[in-house]
Write a structure and sequence with these properties.
Layout: H1 2-15, H2 33-36, H3 53-77, H4 80-97, H5 104-116, H6 124-140, H7 143-148, H8 150-156, H9 167-174, H10 176-188, H11 198-201, H12 206-210, H13 215-228, H14 234-238, H15 241-250, H16 269-273, E1 279-280, E2 283-284, H17 294-298
Antiparallel strand pairs: 1-2
Helix pairs in contact: 1-4, 3-4, 3-6, 4-8, 5-6, 5-10, 6-15, 10-15
Length: 305
């Protein structure tokens, strides 16, 4: 069922009308292809193309609304079905329609440079996209990961027969995202000539969202999706640098996922249903919880909604 939904989104993405502003190269006096010769071809305009400011603000508002809905569906409604619907909707909009641009992961390096280089400034929209999920996590946990993040959503929809990764291996692999975060920040704050923005360059799924990209990165993304059929969200759990930030901020959260708040059954069904290793001793480990609501769907005390 879920792979069919993902396949439908891919078809939709391929036929969706463009959502960027019409844009043409303003400089007509530069040397033209026919004058340069030698088989020269003019490089394509950046993708995705620029948008008006109010549309960028609308994207931030939609991001905030989607996280609010995620919090409500998980903490109040406790509904796996509607969380799944939110996942599909956010993958369609933030992933394929907005082509992966509304994503705080890549903004990590922009914020790092802005904090260390007085000559470098970033738009307020980028700042908002970076901080909003962290603020929500500070109060409610990783709502952004649940159904809002396009990178997490595309992995969520391919989980078929997940296996439980041994605890020690899971914890060891989880350290990779902290190493990746440190490397990304270190490369970003280098002097201008040596500065590298590796998070966007090596995003494994943006090629799918934009229907273009280097072949080797498309293969990497496909490998993550194939692995994700059996190991729940491998990129989110082991490589996502923004996930490392959310994990630490969530430790301070006043609220978060509790499987059965009124009475714990200790039957173990929730732990078997969680493909992300986020339940230990029949209790949700909030820093690791990805807000997927699978535990609710497996709990015999929950009303199936």
């Amino acid at each position: 069922m879920l792979p069919l939904a993902l396949f439908g989104l891919l078809l939709f993405a391929g036929s969706a009308p463009g959502q960027a502003l019409p844009y043409e190269r303003p400089v007509q006096v530069a040397p033209q292809e026919q004058n340069i010769g030698g088989g020269y071809a003019t490089p394509p305009v950046q993708k995705p193309k620029p948008r008006t400011y109010w549309l960028e603000v609308l994207d931030v508002v939609l991001l905030a609304v989607a996280m609010g809905v995620s919090v409500w569906l998980v903490l109040a409604r406790r509904s796996r079905k509607w969380v799944l619907a939110l996942t599909v909707a956010c993958l369609g909009y933030f992933g394929f329609y907005r082509e992966g641009c509304i994503c705080p992961i890549g903004s990590i390096q922009n914020v790092a440079v802005a904090l260390t280089d007085a000559r470098y400034s970033i738009p307020i929209v980028v700042t908002a996209v970076f901080f909003l999920p962290l603020v929500v996590a500070l109060f409610f946990g990783r709502a952004f990961c649940g159904g809002v993040c396009a990178l997490g959503a595309i992995q969520e929809l391919v989980v078929l027969k997940p296996v439980q990764v041994p605890r020690r291996l899971d914890r060891a692999l989880g350290l990779l995202k902290y190493a990746y975060l440190g490397l990304a920040v270190w490369l970003a704050v280098q002097p201008f000539a040596q500065r590298e923005f590796i998070l966007c360059r090596f995003d494994p799924f943006v090629g799918f969202f934009r229907r273009t990209g280097f072949a080797h990165m498309l293969y990497v993304g496909a490998a993550f999706l194939v692995a994700g059929m059996f190991v729940g969200r491998p990129y989110c759990r082991y490589l996502c640098p923004y996930g490392a930030l959310l994990e630490w901020v969530t430790r301070l959260a006043g609220r978060g996922v509790s499987i059965t708040p009124d009475k714990e059954l200790d039957c173990g069904l929730c732990q078997e249903a969680c493909p992300y290793g986020a339940i230990e001793k029949m209790r949700a480990v909030r820093p690791k919880c990805l807000y997927c609501a699978r535990c609710f769907a497996s709990c015999p005390r929950e009303v199936k909604t």
